[in-house]
Amino acid sequence: MEVHQRYGGVVPELASREHVRAIVPVVREALRQADTRLEDLTAIAVTQGPGLVGSLLVGLTYAKALSFAKGIPLIGVHHLEGHIEAALIGVELAYPALALVVSGGHTHLFECTGQGEYRLEGKTRDDAAGEAYDKVSKLLGLGYPGGPVIDALAARGNPRAVRFTSPKLKGNLSDFSFSGLKTAVLRWTEKRRERGDFDARTDSETIDMLASFQNTVIEELLRRAQAAADRIGAKALVVSGGVAANRGLRAAVAKRQWGIPVYFPEPRWSTDNGVMIALAGTRRWMRGQVSGLDLKAQANLPLAR
Fold this sequence. Notes:
The chain is α/β, with parallel strands linked by helices. The chain folds into two domains: 2-82 and 271-286, ATPase, nucleotide binding domain (Nucleotidyltransferase, domain 5); 90-264, 2-Layer Sandwich (Nucleotidyltransferase, domain 5). It has helices spanning 2-5, 12-33, 53-70, 79-86, 129-139, 146-154, 179-193, 204-232, 247-255, 274-286; strands at residues 44-49, 74-78, 97-102, 107-114, 117-123, 237-240, 262-263. The strands form two sheets. A five-stranded mixed beta sheet has the order 5-4-3-6-7, with helices on both faces. Helix 2 runs parallel beside helix 3 (53-70), helix 4 packs across helix 10 (274-286) and helix 8 (204-232) crosses helix 9. The longest helix is centred in the C-terminal third of the chain and has 29 residues, at 204-232.
């Protein structure tokens, strides 16, 4: 985080360099904490995509090298499938289910028709929800990542103080759009600054605006998720991704009457982590889905086939 904070977001080249620097000591430390050796592993799971291709290549190349050197099977994993699996530890999911995956790079709705089987129900047409948080945070000088700080400030504000309108989208009713909301926050901020300088962390009007911003994002996510769940006859809802750690989102989901079980990952498994990739890799291993050494990194790898 420290590397990217000065830029207000992830810089792909710097991310790749950090991956190269960290991957060997991180894997060694993970093995040490697990009190195991590479030779004892059944398989090696690795993220194939989607994501920043430079970072994906570092992980994929290292995983292939370990697989080849130790004779351990390689399993390519979809990043978003990992997020979904992180919410299902100890859960026997009923199908069909609806998965809402919300992060800095993704806002997707998937119909889960069976284990490892997905159909794209809807996605963002522009900014992801977490990306909107980061851009608003950068605009107000609140730092990166924006989600945690806005979530904390929003808890102190009035979520009805500023009226932000929801986008009127034609076509797929399960799609999202957050670029208009981001622009509305920009316009509000410009008008506020015309009256003089202010500290976004202490200014009551700004805190109310952030509470309204977060409330609008959450309502948009849940409104479309509930409509999609009703449409497909979902028997369960899975909410995952980095934004799933948002306390405002969790509270709003808990208040809503879904009529079906709702599953979240633990907050520590919400943001990107190795555990979720291991979980998804285990599921694939059990289904006999093993990859070859010709596995390629795919920046825009689709989950739904």
